[in-house]
Write a structure and sequence with these properties.
This protein is of the alpha/beta class. The chain is built from 17 helices and 36 strands. Helices cover 31% and strands 26% of the residues. The longest helix is centred in the first third of the chain and has 32 residues.
Length: 696
């Protein structure tokens, strides 16, 4: 790395904003509280601090990579733009009808997430395309212009246009956009044919509405951030992290902010994949726990599992179909409201519950002494002694132990007749069991054996809980990488510039049209290459093509790789064999001679993804030297005991230690239970190993 290759990453979370800079002399990190009302202020404060530590001016930074939960939080908290939906006449209630499914068919009082667009702001116009893109009813342009007074009276800021079968022919959507843009130049417009040109009316409409809902917010934020960066002297390139694990330009992010929904967690998955490659761990469960949420992702063969669908704002934590569906490229993971700031309480049945609501950055946990009074997971960690109050956030933000004890004692301990420490342990057990349940469900749904995985833990709170989570899941090996507390931001620095284009066009293999398929794929490839080339700065790029296929009559598709060449009529046999191979891998058998259909085609263009080389021989183990002791509550003894405290920057490869112990660093702490032994490996990872005989 040279001075001209200095890269900086920023990750805005619900509680903290993490900043990482890599220079030829090493890596510097900074964790500051998020500023919810003006997130760019927290970003600039973190950048100023980390640049000062590195002894650099912002003009020396070549690339800034940014991920954020702003779009996610806007949807969950319903703080997006006042949004309208324009649909085909007769389809006003698509968002309410959804897919007519019930995520819990026996719950007579089932609750679904509130649509982003209320019924009063849904409008329709006469028009109709058929499934092949033929005009069955011309667009009534007078009806479109007649909508303008109603939109203006309702103070609509953004509009989603989602017409029937617009993925097959977008002409009517484009004409509506032109008519509205002429009469309402300040109106933000999202076309479903651009945002999500795929079949499935409900999912396409939901995705378009989500994009429209967050577009003014995200575009305004990006514009303000760019202005602040330029004013500070930054002249390099700014990229936004996407949910699929690639980087996009600000222009793409402004057009399709829905692709940023899971940008922060995607960075963490990229980091975990890199650490897995370095440590030679082909089966990994990544565990990212921050201040607001916890994320779990399965990684096999050093590649995170990917998906084309995602749900946000689930009404039920573990139940599919209980959230708002989005059709976007996304790294597949499960996310639950169980972070350091998650609020604990005792419910009407006398049970401790944790989350999903969070104290966030304002006011924060009680121990932050910023006005918060509700007990949180961070308060419990502090009361149990797993966090050193004086060294939290590198000593820049000391914690108030007395406030934490008072919050837990009054809200949890007093209600249940428990001592403060035992009440704090109850909070810890509930949040750990919640995460373990989520991980089990996630693995079972994908046919994976979770006990075969290695757990890679990062985020400000994950190293504190990783050992106990591993015990609950039957996992014998845990890895905590360097700078784990800002892991997602570190992952941003490893992400490629990438863009995926997808388009639905129905085709049966027994009527395979190679020419039409090749024409569509080439068109998608040209657009994807154009987007990536704008930021790749001459870097080589790779292209992957795939088709989403299924047996005729099935409801879900599986991706099948396509050759990167013009398709020929004979390729229908190649596609059948490949589909049957992938299908058999997933379901243990395939259906010979059954009819197969293709619904959707996709092309992804990316700069190279270079995995690090695996580690060499492990250094010889030797006892590590403790820097002191910490009073930590032992629930089995029911009392506080002194355990060794290690300062992570003092540990070197080969150092080993036994639990119980605490390994502290600026951004987080790693807590070892008595069942684990820790060793520092060649790249500075803390590797926790539990003998097979040790049981949870």
């Amino acid at each position: 790395m040279t001075e001209s290759h200095i890269r900086l990453a920023v990750d805005i979370g619900g509680t903290f904003t993490d900043v990482v800079i890599e220079t030829p002399r090493g890596r510097h990190t900074k964790k500051v509280l998020t500023t919810p009302t003006a997130p760019e202020e927290g970003v600039m404060a973190g950048m100023t601090g980390v640049l000062a530590e590195a002894g650099l001016a912002i003009g020396a930074v070549e690339v800034i990579i940014h991920g954020t939960t702003l779009a996610t939080n806007a949807i969950i908290e319903r703080k997006g733009a006042r949004t309208a939906l324009i649909a085909t006449d007769g389809f006003r209630d698509t968002l309410d009808i959804a897919d007519e499914g019930r995520y819990d068919q026996y719950d007579v009082q089932i609750e679904k997430p509130r649509p982003l667009v209320p019924r009063a702001l849904r409008f329709t116009v006469p028009e109709r395309m058929d499934v092949d893109g033929r005009v069955r009813r011309p667009l009534d342009e007078a009806a479109v212009t007649a909508l303008v007074p109603g939109l203006e009276a309702a103070r609509v800021e953004s509009a989603a246009v989602a017409l029937m079968h617009s993925y097959a022919n977008p002409a009517h959507e484009r004409r509506i956009a032109a008519l509205l843009a002429e009469r309402m130049p300040g109106l933000w417009l999202t076309l479903s044919s651009e945002c999500c040109p795929e079949i499935r009316e409900y999912e396409r409409t939901s995705t378009a509405c989500a994009n429209a809902y967050v577009q003014p917010l995200m575009a305004g934020y990006i514009e303000r951030l760019e202005a602040l960066l330029a004013g500070a002297g930054f002249a390099g390139a700014l990229y936004l992290m996407t949910s699929g694990g690639g980087l996009a330009s600000p222009d793409v992010a402004r057009r399709f902010p829905v692709r940023l929904i899971e940008s922060g967690p995607a960075g963490g998955a990229i980091l975990a994949a890199e650490v897995a490659a370095q440590c030679g761990e082909p089966k990994v469960l990544s565990y990212d726990m921050g201040g607001t949420t916890a994320k779990i992702c399965l990684i096999e063969g050093y590649r995170p599992q990917a998906s084309r669908s995602f749900e946000v704002d689930r009404a039920a934590r573990f139940l599919k179909g209980s959230g708002l569906p989005l059709r976007i490229p996304v790294i597949e993971m499960v996310e639950i409201g169980a972070g350091g700031g998650s609020i604990a309480r005792v419910d009407a049945l006398g049970r401790i519950t944790v989350g999903p609501d969070s104290s966030g950055a304002e006011p924060g946990p009680a121990c932050y002494a910023r006005g918060g009074t509700a007990p949180t997971v961070t308060d419990a960690d502090t009361v149990l002694g797993r966090i050193d109050p004086k060294r939290f956030a590198g000593g820049r933000m000391p914690l108030d132990l007395d406030r934490a004890r008072r919050a837990i004692g009054e809200a949890v301990g007093g209600s249940l007749g428990l001592g403060t420490e035992m009440a704090a342990f109850g909070i810890e057990e509930i949040v750990d069991e919640t995460m373990a349940n989520a991980a089990r469900v996630h693995a079972i749904e994908r046919g994976k054996i979770i006990g075969d995985c290695t757990l890679i833990a990062f985020g400000g709170a994950a190293p504190l809980h990783a050992a106990r989570l591993a015990e609950k899941l039957g996992i014998a090996r845990v890895i905590v990488p360097p700078n784990a507390g800002v892991g997602s931001a570190v992952g941003f620095l490893r992400a490629p510039i990438a863009y995926e284009r997808v388009h639905s066009r129905y085709m049966r293999l027994d009527a395979f049209d190679a020419g039409a398929a090749t024409q569509l794929l080439n068109s998608l490839a040209a657009e994807a290459h154009g987007v990536v080339a704008a930021g790749a700065a001459g870097q080589p790029t790779s292209e992957t093509r795939a088709a989403y296929m299924r047996y005729v009559g099935q409801g879900h598709e599986i991706p099948v790789a396509l050759p990167k060449r013009p398709l020929t009529p004979e390729d229908h046999e190649l596609l059948r064999r490949e589909f049957e191979r992938v299908y058999a891998e997933m379901f243990a058998r395939f259906i010979p001679s059954a009819a197969i259909e293709i619904l959707t085609w996709t092309v992804t263009v990316s700069t190279p993804r270079v995995l690090p080389a695996p580690l060499g021989a492990a250094p010889a183990a030797r006892p590590a030297t403790a820097s002191g002791e910490r009073p930590v509550f032992d629930p089995e003894l029911g009392q506080t005991v002194e355990v060794p405290l290690y300062w992570r920057p003092d540990l070197v490869p080969g150092d080993s230690l036994d639990g119980p112990a605490v390994i502290a660093e600026d951004e987080t702490s790693t807590f070892l239970t008595a069942r684990f032994r820790a060793t520092i490996n060649a790249i500075g990872c803390i590797v926790l190993e539990r003998p097979a005989r040790a049981e949870a």
